[in-house]
Amino acid sequence: MTTLTDADAVDGLRDALGLLKDREQVAERLLESSARHSFDPDEELDWEAPFEEGKWFWPPELVSLYDTPMWRRMSEEQRILLSRHEAAALASLGIWFELILMQLLVRHIYDKAATSAHVRYALTEIEDECRHSKMFARVITRSGTPWYPVARVHQNLGRLFKTISTTPGSFTATLLGEEVLDWMQRLTFPDERVQPLIRGVTRIHVVEEARHVRYAREELRRQMVTAPRWSQEFTRLTSGEFARVFSVAFVNPEVYTQVGLDRREAVAQVKASGHRRDVMQQGSRRLTDFLDDIGVLRGAGRRLWKSSGLLA
Ligand SMILES: [Fe+2]
Ligand SMILES: [Fe+2]
């Protein structure tokens, strides 16, 4: 066992100051990038253009039922209709995440100097998320699809979480919400089989989210060094639990009913689908590699991650 000496204490202080300086530099760069590449979706996208016959609303391989026995029985038209409803369900989920995130960011900066670049960037990110949530709401309406709220129990878990979560817990949840959807959107916007409006929405989101992911990652990396040990441990456990909720809440099963499928059967087939498991694991890989690297995926938390199906 080692004891803390004055030299260690000075080193610790120097590290902490270094981290704070680093935090300001990262935020300054993100502010510059925001000033250069931010979009107003209402101006940027053609919302009135009619949808194109035979085009998808989400790449078929990323639709939950893809390659299941049920999928093989569906007509092309019904598959495309399902992609339309899943895109709306994911947009609804995106709004849920963004509302939680905005509150977490407001709590994160509440006690910090508003003149710092770190706080100014958090405010900029909130502005981005406001535009995104309005953009997602508009695309749901334009697609003639319903609003797909998450289940009551998840809605209430979110309410509790956004009220009491710790800083590292908040940034872990943020990354989970942002990175998996981001991975899907990166495959969606360049895909010529997909409706131009959906491609435009996902392109804007990918460009602006890249900064959010950077901000959350850098902050979480610092937090996993500086936060008290109990808080780091708590982050490991809660992140495993988010992963579990996230994998269940990802697609609202009401989409199956809306396109005329048997809901229970569809849910069972998605659960049994090897293709779907691969998609979700691939979508999570960049995140799980990072979380592993900074020490979040350990112990009981790691087991929860595995049981969510997101970690191989
Ligand atoms: Fe967003
Ligand atoms: Fe974001």
UniProtKB/TrEMBL annotation:
Gene3D superfamilies: Ribonucleotide Reductase, subunit A. Pfam families: AurF. GO terms for molecular function: oxidoreductase activity. InterPro entries: AurF/CmlI, Ferritin-like_SF, RNR-like. This is Membrane protein. It comes from Streptomyces pilosus.
